[in-house]
Design brief:
Elements lengths: L2 H16 L10 E2 L4 E2 L9 E8 L5 E8 L6 E11 L2 E6 L5 E7 L2 E14 L2 E12 L14 E14 L3 E11 L9 E9 L1
Antiparallel strand pairs: 1-2, 3-4, 3-12, 4-5, 5-8, 6-7, 8-9, 9-10, 10-11, 11-12
């Protein structure tokens, strides 16, 4: 899939999901203040944060939004990140190096659905999605030569400090078509709710 098509699909998805934030139901509550959600009042349904490791593969700037107009429930996250250049080595059965390839800096685009539950300042987030890497990564994919798709499942703890500061920590399991990471990778993030 060309990168332009992928970016267009993500942009269309976000423009559609922004309209999901307007609701006429007053039964929704903001869990920080336990007040009813009414149009015009702030409920902090969106967040922007930088994350390290996790679905971004190294570092990514992410945008997160809830579909129901509160700071809990089903939502989507998407980001744009980078993975640094690195070297990959091939070994034979005797453990000797048979080849080395240097991989350039890669663009990463993580996106997926997530669900948030919790009260007060403490929340649990579970999610699943895909990450596009702009170059081949032999760590995960030995089939393609110009890109890599990774599937991921994550579980994170979210902590809000004050009204706007957001901190996240959790684990992400990643897999490609032929490879499943033996251990989940840690994820850490910090940003703002608005």
């Amino acid at each position: 899939m060309p990168i332009r098509t992928l970016i267009t699909v993500i942009a269309l998805f976000f423009s559609h999901s922004l309209f999901a934030q307007i609701t006429r139901h007053s039964r929704h509550t903001d869990s920080l203040s336990h007040t009813p959600y009414l149009p015009g009042l702030r409920s902090f349904t969106q967040a922007a944060y930088i994350s390290f490791w996790g679905p971004g593969a190294f570092a990514a700037m992410n945008y997160d939004i809830r579909f129901n107009g509160t700071n809990q429930g089903l939502g989507v996250r998407a980001g744009l990140g980078v993975a640094p250049d690195y070297s990959e080595k091939w070994y034979n059965r005797k453990g000797q190096v048979t080849g080395t390839i240097r991989r350039p800096v890669m663009l990463t685009i993580p996106f997926g659905l997530n669900y948030i539950i919790g009260t007060g300042k403490h929340f649990m987030e579970v999610g699943t999605g895909m990450t596009y890497l702009s170059d081949d990564s032999l760590c995960y994919d030995d089939i393609t030569t110009s890109y890599t798709w990774l599937g991921w499942v994550s579980m994170n703890y979210r902590r809000t400090v004050g009204k706007h500061l957001l901190m996240r920590v959790g684990l992400t399991a990643m897999a490609s078509k032929r490879y499943v990471a033996p251990f989940p990778t840690p994820e850490w993030g910090m940003g703002f709710r608005f």
